[in-house]
Amino acid sequence: MKIDGTPYRSIWVDETDGWSVRIIDQTKLPWSVDLVRLTTLEEMAHAIKAMLVRGAPLIGASAAYGVALAMRTDASDAALAQALDVLGTTRPTAINLRWALQRMGELLQKLEPSARIGAAYAEAAKICDEDVAVNEAIGRNGLALIQEKAKTGKRVNVLTHCNAGWIATVDWGTALAPIYMAHDSGVNVHVWVEETRPRNQGASLTAWELSKHGVPHTVIADNAGGHYMQHGEVDLVIVGTDRVTRQGDVCNKIGTYLKALAARDNGVPFWVALPSSTVDWTIRDGVSEIPIEERAASEVTTMTGRAMDGSIATVRIVPTSSPAANPAFDVTPARLVTGLITERGLCDATEAALTEMFSDLA
Q1: How confident is the model at residue 2 (pLDDT cuts 50, 70, 90)?
Q2: Pairing between strand 345-347 and 339-342?
Q3: Both ends of the chain: CA-CA distance in Å?
Q4: 252 marked ligand binding residue
Q5: What is the mean predicted confidence (pLDDT) over 56-77?
Q6: Taking each helix axis from N to C terminus, what angle separates 77-88 and 56-73, rounded to the nearest 10 degrees?
Q7: Are the C-beta atoms of residues 73 and 82 closer than 8 Å to each other?
Q8: For residue range 86-112, what is the model confidence (pLDDT) as tens digits?
Q9: Residues with catalytic annotation?
Q10: 298 Cβ contact partners less than 8 Å away, ≥ 6 residues apart
Q11: Is 253 annotated as a binding residue?
């Protein structure tokens, strides 16, 4: 995708040295586009944990490059085991992290240390290229849903929560990929962008992405989504996900569950876009089995934005005497999900449908 006319991926190997890794620091968006150079395992682990990179697919790709950086320093068995452990503890909820590390580990453990550096970089690049192709396929499959709504001749209003666009993946995105394709094909599509407290990924990231691509959109408060559904101003909801169980339960940014409830009450289709790598085949019950990351209370008690004088400032919005809790994700039960948009097509959020579509993985 493009930023002011220049095409970017969200992660790439620095072309000047051929080994360090470049990312877009998403904590600085939308106020500035900072390209950060990462050179060590520790720097990559920090980038993932501190959410300089975020979004399940991008977390997996970043972890793969983290292993490659580690192998460049020390390609021994002990160093490989340490790299997999360090990266594996950065974000507990996104299953793509575990998927990518398992893939890297299985490949590199079979090789002699002398062969691991080149193999690690090649596999990380392969993971990134596959992610782009997968997300493009998700976009094509989801496009049909928007085109069907467009047959009325009216504007198609899509509501999304959090950020599942190209900066949450290597390119294209999951939930936003069908929207980009609809816009590019001439469909009159408009996006309701929920702000997504507490980190405001909708207001800061999704709105920034859509602005850069020229997609019509409106930022709304998280609690406004149900209101627009009640008044017939939401045609469908499309969200991303960090983990889907084999029976179709969906774990996504906190607040997604409430959107699914409102959508069900108002007869609005609720679709979830995901690559097959986001399916966790080892668990069924998302509510009881998916670990929910508890992040710092400061994300709830403070907000960062641009002051009237143009400076970037962080201010506290909660009384100093009040504590805060900050679960980063919630789980939407499969019964509330209209269907899943995957790289292989659309399917019901059921174990039977998932197993049939991904029989080679299940």
Answers
A1: confident
A2: antiparallel
A3: 32
A4: yes
A5: 97
A6: 150
A7: no
A8: 999 999 898 999 999 999 999 999 999
A9: 242
A10: none
A11: yes
Q: Which amino acid appears at position 34 of this protein? A: D
201 known member of a binding site: yes
| Tokens (6 digits) for 256 | 């997604």
Q: Is 49 annotated as a binding residue?
A: no
Burial of 113 (0-12, 13-18, 19+ CB in 10 A): middle
Give percent of the chain above pLDDT 70.
Answer: 100
pTM over 0.90: yes
Domains of the chain: 2-130 (1.20.120.420), 141-357 (3.40.50.10470)
Q: Residue 53 is which amino acid? A: V
Residue 26's contacts (CB-CB under 8 Å, 6 or more residues apart) are 51, 52, 53, 54, 167, 205
**pLDDT score for 4:** 85
The SS3 assignment for 134 reads: helix
Supply the DSSP symbol for 294: B
94, 293 Cβ separation under 8 angstroms: no
Q: Is 136 exposed, middle or buried (0-12, 13-18, 19+ CB in 10 A)?
A: middle
